[in-house]
């Protein structure tokens, strides 16, 4: 049996608001474990816009998203949070007085309170909504390439118009039997030199650009794909015989299992009581983009405040019967945990 | 006020009143339409994809390259697909009809 971690507060999501929740809990001497689906902390800041400057963070007139995350990590360092990356929380159930979280890697965490700071949900590949795609996943439909050699002498369809699609088309042109690139328009969002190389390979007949087409359906037996059906926007159909589909449409976030925890959710956000960020389930709080109340502003700024509200409300659940002395950090300093 | 009509994925037509100057995404969210609009209108995702009725497409406004780039990551595109955070409500679009694709 895997060991069970115990902590005061489990925080779901390691974006800016999840990280700042660690700070707010820490100032109230509550320990935290943080779980995130991505391989790095920072959530959307790291995954979607690391180099974009933010102008509305108080006292930081112009800060890159990735630098904001680095500073938040410095700020929470004294509280020694345990951060579990690359895994999604799949289950959240009450075990006695505690909430038990089980992640996609089988990790178990028990906590007195839970703060959900999951943004728009867990990031994963942005999958094309094809009816039977899951049947082929892992064998002949892929969202990333682990070993180029696996595609030697295979017929490959690459779908997408970004860097991943272009880079893998270039790389696999040498080893694969056939490479088709499906894209809805002539323009690719990739380094111009790479696009030029790809177009040159297409002229030499080493790859085929199937433009302007979109994925329409997949055919095959068991987990083995044999045909990728594509269509133009006007409905003209083409069938491509293929052994593998590489689907590169970037990342998408999904609430996934959070939908199943009995929370009051509408259109991807959780209703909370704005003064405490308490959800309809006692002991579970929601902060940041995923928390909703009238006139909510989806700003990092608001999320920071919500983290403070949630931490103070969670204190009463983590430390039942104990007085909560409100203190400014100028008085308390940064307490040791 | 300007009138907009959303057709939900289940086929239900919802007519709403909108204030000129708002984005269509803001109007959709205010009226609890089934739409994620995850990035909140900052052109960082494609989760406010709508299919504009052909008769209205010309009036839906210019598409900037950044919107086209994000439409590349949407699924079930049509010739009249737009990200509705990039469409402004005005007298020009009074009566516009849009279909919402299923939420991913």
Strand content of chain A: 25-35%
Q: Helical residue percent of chain A?
A: 10-25%
CATH topology tier name of chain B: Ubiquitin-like (UB roll)
What is the helix tally of chain B? Answer: 3
* Backbone shape of chain B: globular
Distance between the termini of chain B: 31 Å
What is the C-alpha radius of gyration of chain A, as a whole number of Å? Answer: 24 Å
Please write the string of helix (H) and strand (E) elements of chain A: EHEHEEHEEEEEHEEHEHEEEEEEEEEEHH
Q: Which sequence of SSEs, written as H and E, runs from N to C of chain B?
A: EEHEHHEE
Judging by the overall fold, what is the CATH architecture of chain B?
A: Roll
CATH class annotation of the largest domain in chain A = Alpha Beta
Bin the helical content of chain B: 10-25%
Q: What is the CATH superfamily label of chain B? A: Beta-grasp domain
* Arrangement of strands in the largest sheet of chain B: 2-1-5-3-4
- What is the total number of structural domains of chain A? 2
Oligomer: heterodimer
What do the pLDDT scores of chain B average to?
A: 94
Look at the helices and sheets of chain A and give the structural class: alpha/beta
Sheet with the most strands, sense and barrel status of chain B: 5 strands, mixed
> Which pair of chains forms the biggest interface, and how many residues does each contribute?
A-B, 31 and 25 residues
CATH fold type of the largest domain in chain A: FAD/NAD(P)-binding domain
